[in-house]
Amino acid sequence: MAFLFSGLYEDIPDIDQYLERIDYHGDRRPTLDNLQELTRKNLTHIPYGNLDFYRNQNCPSLAIPDIYEKIVIQRGCGGCFEINLLFFALLRSLGYDLFPVIVKCLFGSADPVVPTHCAAIVTIDDIRYYVDVGLGLPSPAGPVVLDEGSGWQPAVISPHYYSYKMNREGDTILFEGCKGRKRMTMVSFVPQPVEAVDLIPLNYYACMAETSPVTQGIIVEIFRENGSACLRKDKLTICSDGRVEERTLETDDDLNTALREVFGIGGV
């Protein structure tokens, strides 16, 4: 009998096709420079979005072949667990040393929160980096040095982007964000490895619970080379070279056009 959740641990079906999906044509050695470029390419080509589980009221599979079909073959968007687990599978296939961690999304709140996210700790030349391509626009634009005192990691130019650094409270690491004069604790995590199967109930809660922020309306977000694009319910915000354009999508045709032309995904 096959392991019930073996799909969570499968390899990327086709590395070349994944790299083509994110328009990455560079070196494939497991170096920091290559990781930075892979992260940037993933963020600018694969949109974060809840279209699948918000519209269809279903919990997406975390099996690598299923995520691959949805994001690479069908060129769709995905939730945080989907995008990150697929990216981590790619990194493993390229020889990176990494493990996933469970993450709490705080965004400045002091209240207890349910962990609804995951990221990875990648080790290169004995230095640990926090890697996350699945948080939407608050995602760090590249690997963030995990060790305390490493200083602020520079932000990409966009009103949505933050600079980041790590602080530690006991065994917990706090991921602090800074945007202009505004500083807040973005996420927290304990840098201990977890199994992919441990993420299944967290994924279910994040995608299906009435109290989850991603079940309150349509969300689609993507980094762009010169800014970002964000769709929240019916409001589309496009940031480009420091300029911000907002408009309301009033019809399904408007929505489908924006999904296709702005985010690179088909209509729903």
Task: Describe this entry's structure for a reader.
The protein has helices at 15-21, 32-45, 51-56, 64-73, 80-93, 200-208, 252-261; strands at residues 48-49, 97-105, 117-124, 127-131, 144-145, 163-169, 172-179, 182-189, 219-224, 227-232, 235-240, 243-248. The longest helix has 14 residues, at 32-45. It is globular and about 50 Å long. The relative contact order is 0.15. The chain is α+β, with helices and mostly antiparallel strands. Helix 4 (64-73) crosses helix 5 (80-93). Helices cover 26% and strands 27% of the residues. The chain contains seven helices and twelve strands. The model is unreliable at 155-159 (pLDDT under 50). The protein has a seven-stranded antiparallel β-sheet. A five-stranded antiparallel β-sheet has the order 1-9-10-11-12. It has one domain: Arylamine N-acetyltransferase fold, CATH 3.30.2140.
